[in-house]
Batch of 2 targets.
Target 1
Amino acid sequence: MSRAETTATGPDDREQDRTEAAADTAAPAVRAPKAVWSLGLFRSELITVFRRWRTLALLAVLAGVPLLVGIAVRIETGNGGSLGGGRDNGNGPAFIEQVSNNGLFLTFASLAATLPFFLPMAIGVVAGDSVAGEASAGTLRYLLVAPAGRTRLLLVKYGSVLTFCLAATLVVTASALATGFALFPVGEVTLLSGTDISLSEGLLRALLIAVLVAASLVGIAALGLFVSTLTDSGISAMAATVGLLITVQIVDNIPQLHAFQPYLFPHYWLSFADILRDPVGWDGIAKNLGLQALYAAVFGSAAWARFTSRDVTA
Amino acid sequence: MAPIQPAQYDPQWDDGGGEGRSRGRKVARFAVPVAVAGVAAATIGLVPALADAGDPSLPSLTAEQLLTKIAASHVQTVSGSVKVTTDLGLPSALSSGAASSLFGGGAGASAKAPGTGAGSPAAPQTQLTQLLAGTHTLHVAADGPDRQKVSVIEPAAEYSIVHNGTQVWAYDSASNQAYHQTLPQRQSGATAHSDPQDLPATPQDAAKQVIKAADGTASFTVDGTARVAGHSAYELLIRPEHAPDTTVGAIRIAVDAKTGVPLKLTVDPRGGGKAVFDIGYTKVSFAKPAASTFDFTPGKGVKVTEGTDQAPKNTPDRAGTQPDVLGSGWDAIAVVKSADGLPTGKQRNDSGRADSLLNSFGKQVSGSFGTGTLFHTRLVNALLTDNGTLYVGAVSESALTGAADAAHTAGK
């Protein structure tokens, strides 16, 4: 058992007292207030996450999806033919039929295409790695040497994962917007209900959808963080999170299990499409956000319970 | 910077004495997520129960008074969400395709006479049959008899029918196709719902049709009160009378106490179990919907299929497929001789495929009429004899074979 850990695992109030006492006695002028100090930790954490090659590669893959979809649709419809050789009932991915007429729909199509697996997989990798990765690299104990407290470290880790959720979604959105505007005509947006809205309002709704998609990932981020506190191996935490995701997605698609499905975190993910209705259907969106908040609360507190009471040996 | 201080010696981290305390604290911390999950589960379980609790107490009404109230209701504007659940006990794989050919010809749903423009995925004939199986959410808006909009909410897609004056537009967002039809002037003023479909999309429509059909052949009683979509409502219970063969057990209609608008309609089968058909508002407002709701202009790149004037052209057409009706009221059996109403071309192919599908769940029966295949659902039964006559009705299987026998004897 390391000394560092002993320092860091005391009850939180004592720790804070100590931090404050140190700040008061030693260098009150130099020492920034606690909130700012947390931000400093958060910033350094963000830099660590976003400087990783792995993170950048994930973002690059995500940016490539809209490009791929856009080019495929463009080639298919380039000679005036309809998509999928005149297929009848629109069984393809959501919104794909509208893409060739309005580039903005590439944003919705890409988000609908990446939300089931690509995005949560990337989140699972980053979240699974957040604590377990530090542990397997042997850097966790050094993080705990700093008088930040485990709770605050965990919050900072979760914050950085959530920032990655937002960044990943925005990367998909931005790439889809750029591809869509470059390859397809853009104009008034026909909503699902057949009503037309102006392009600027359409863009606003696209932004809202991007934020909603990012918020849809809050649940799996918390789940990944919890899994990450369970093990000292970054790889196994990532694999477990992604495996859980795949399992849950499969369960969500088995009709016989419909009794459980409303409680599975991906169940309401596609509710973001309700933004494109007229009138906007908020029910599914509210259910989705509520479910994500529930997952964040349950697995966030489970991660806290595990992380603040475990032995850190690496 | 603060000097790095050596940590205090804390006996808790020694082996032995501190172990129990640490474990206790661990358990206490894990109690937090468990408690959060527990509270959430309790909330999920209790809130709907609390919301539904307690039927409202309303001044008691007789069935006649309630029927008068429905008839006197002049609410013309409505918007809201409707949930439709149909559970005929059909295998779900058969849902749309088979259901349309099963009920399309015989059940008296006149809309599905082989119409024009049926090839387009946006055509109402193609789309609305899906309502015959499973649970669907609709969004409806209406402003008088001339302007209505019904949207079938699908995951990440929507199918809308907009009726505005003589114009009927249908837009299917999944295939990005539209269907357009101009109604003749007289028809649009004549009936309350001149949409190209007669499937009821609102509880009002359904209740009107049922009450009209049940007049004189059923007992009407007021059966307590209920809360539907946040409104206090009376429950009207309709039970078929003098109809030994029908499979309909009872029909319940929840009528808004204030406006007299039917808010929910449920059809229970005689055999018991879940309701066969359930249509009700989950949200409703009687405010006038925005005029723009009923505007539709196809966006750029939307493929539009023009439906030709159905009404004048279909009249002779329909006479051919219009089923003969044996019996009356609840025991009525529709008879379709497919010899005269045989669909042609593409439609024949479609129904041929559906037939082979249907044969796999029908059962062979025989009688003095010969042999035939009997299709059984929880409400509607159908008998297709080998000489091509289809008997359909909300009646028991034996009543169907009996009718076929009788028809055979009479035909001799």
Target 2
Amino acid sequence: MSNVPDNFRYRESHEWIDPQTGAVGISDHAQHELTDVVFVELPKVGMHVVTGQQVAVVESVKAASDIYAPVSGEIVAINETLTDNPALLNTDPHVAGWIFKLKMTEPEELEALMDAVAYRAHIA
Amino acid sequence: MVPFAGWEMPVQYKGIVDEHKAVRGSVGVFDISHMGQFLLEGRGAEAFLNRALTNNVSKLASGQGQYSLLLNANGGVIDDLIVYRLSEREFFLVVNASKIDEDRAQLESLGFGEDVQFADISAQMGGIAVQGPKSREVFAAVFGYEASFPEHNTIFVSVTNSGVLYLCGTGYTGEEGFEFFAPASGIRDWFAKLNSAAHDQGGMPCALGARDTLRLEMGYPLNGNDLAPDKTPLQAGLGFFVDFEKGDFVGREALLAQKAAGLPTKLTGFHMTSQSPPPRAHYAVWYEGAQVAEVCSGGMSPTLSQGIGMAYLPLAASKLGTAIEIEIRGKRYAAETVKKPFYHKQPVTP
């Protein structure tokens, strides 16, 4: 069973965002479907993004998957450890495997995302 | 599940890398029921196949098989296949799923005549490939210790209560193994039996994803990616499977003309030399500041942990050790041409 942290919000395309820190990553369910992440293309710090904008790319052996901004904001940090250790997305998708951090410009957009209960139903 | 040549097939069961490593390290079991099978028999079968295919079936003794190519008149590849000689006048062909109809149409167009009986048994047959260093153990566990394992490029036909079984010493992974074809009605049971035996050897079921990474590490071409109707076997590096001495065959003249004129491009292996996303099919290949080709097949090699691929490069760029670049999402990444296969089996140390 996939691990779905209660304090995160989720996008239909399987990104999570931590409303406290603005960290964004992919869900345990997503990493399980992708398996074996081999490359993460990170965005640039300082980039302004809007909800649904393609921001990063996660490549597994199987396929390349676009990662979308769950809410609008400015990219204020990227997880550079993923460059050398992309497998963190598989081993620790919710903590060490965060991809970028957003300084939200429209925090009310969080309301449009799924909570943990809804996301569990989404992937069931 | 993904659509593949009219079939719904899984890309992975446990995961591509786990499945890939199982085949390299122990054993993997693949459902290859999608593949096509033809039977040709009769007095004229040998001569017909020598006219239709590039390799020389006259070199086959009963029970032996060979890799061969079906070409169009321009020398381009319609399909690559394995042809087995079952007896003096009987041949069994294993062809690609996506090309069954085209292959049949091409053979029909050559005219079987009265001396060749042709049957397409693809729809009735299922198939399973068992690949990996523990294949012999799996074979013995399922077929009995007294049954003889089909050695490389041989075929063994067994008539059983549930129909004819074709046991072939072939594969698409670079590992020891066998492929077998049996009536589709029984294939689910065979799959379960072989998987249970594979499980006992530390193996697992494997799907299309691992089949692709395994064959790519060996530099084996995949028809549709690396073989095409506008590319000849000479360009694909498959000249070994073309016998110019045996007499006329479809495409021969075109191949001889190409040989005389020089190859325009050559299917060349490359690996990425810097940290990069995996190279994938259709990415642009750059050489000396110009785009010269597209990647045919590419991906991350699970054994080498490196991006590898193949492309039809101009001869100047196909020389080993040539610096090229692969364009991935608008950015060019350094790569270098290398010799195939990409992967060499490590000698077993006692």
